[in-house]
Design a protein that fits this description.
By secondary structure, this protein is α+β, with helices and mostly antiparallel strands. Strand 4 and strand 5 form a beta hairpin. It has a four-stranded mixed β-sheet with strand order 8-1-10-9. The protein starts with a strand and ends with a strand. The longest helix is centred in the C-terminal third of the chain and has 13 residues. 21% of the residues lie in helices and 18% in strands.
Length: 226
């Protein structure tokens, strides 16, 4: 298996639902505005805005950006304590108790998808009760990022095993894909010809961010049709 994601920019409206769903699902802390201005916003899924052309023919494009879960991830190569690594299914994982907060991985990531916990995560009164018990709350001083909702994968595997069958495509979806109202985000096994991501990844519109770096991202974008 090689888990991956396809994001169709023709369908994406930039609504930000995927960003909100990711924060809720993964207990990503909300920082104060003054901290955000210092570049300390915590995001596992970001919504990037790109401006093309010049006024009055200015065009604004928006696209979601999670961790790319590269096949050749630069971040894992620089971690001195192996707190980040690529597992056997292609997911670039984090071991938070092992992280020493050196941030070498953040510097090495060309997609800038990792966040550093500057403070102990806190939630407003009443919000703490909404924390997802399936996802650990990261401690201060560690680096965190998108995991492709690997906790959902684990639950789906256990469910399939209890029913004596193989994992099916619909058994496991990331929170961002599940929440997208336009169906722009598709998740699945890139090596399984029965999964939609397999055929979509071979579309003539398929492209990857910073392909020339050789990182081989497993997040694939489908370009807009002009």
């Amino acid at each position: 298996m090689k888990w991956g994601m396809v994001i169709d920019l023709q369908k994406c409206t930039g609504c930000g639902e995927c960003v909100a769903a990711c924060k809720l699902e993964n207990n990503v802390a909300i920082v104060e505005p003054k901290e955000s201005e210092m570049g300390r916003t915590m995001l596992w899924m970001d919504m990037l805005t790109v401006y093309e052309g010049e006024y009055p023919r200015l065009r604004v494009r928006q696209f979601p950006r999670p961790c790319m879960h590269c096949d050749h991830p630069p971040c894992t190569k620089v971690c001195p304590v192996r707190a980040t690594y690529k597992n056997e299914e292609g997911i670039v994982a984090q071991i938070y108790p092992q992280c020493i907060g050196c941030r070498y991985c953040m510097a090495a990531c060309p997609y800038t998808v990792k966040s550093f916990n500057w403070y102990k995560p806190e939630w407003a009164p009443g919000i703490r009760e909404t924390v997802n018990p399936d996802v650990s709350v990261r401690q201060v001083g560690v680096v965190e990022k998108c995991t492709f909702c690997v906790h959902r994968l684990q639950k789906a595997k256990e469910q399939a095993k209890s029913e004596g069958r193989n994992l099916r495509e619909g058994d496991f979806q990331t929170a961002c894909a599940e929440s997208c109202p336009a169906g722009a985000i598709v998740f699945g096994d890139l090596e399984n010809t029965g999964h939609r991501v397999n055929s979509l990844s071979r579309s003539p519109r398929a492209t990857r961010l910073l392909e020339d770096l050789g990182t081989e991202p497993k997040v694939i974008y489908l370009k807009e049709v002009d």
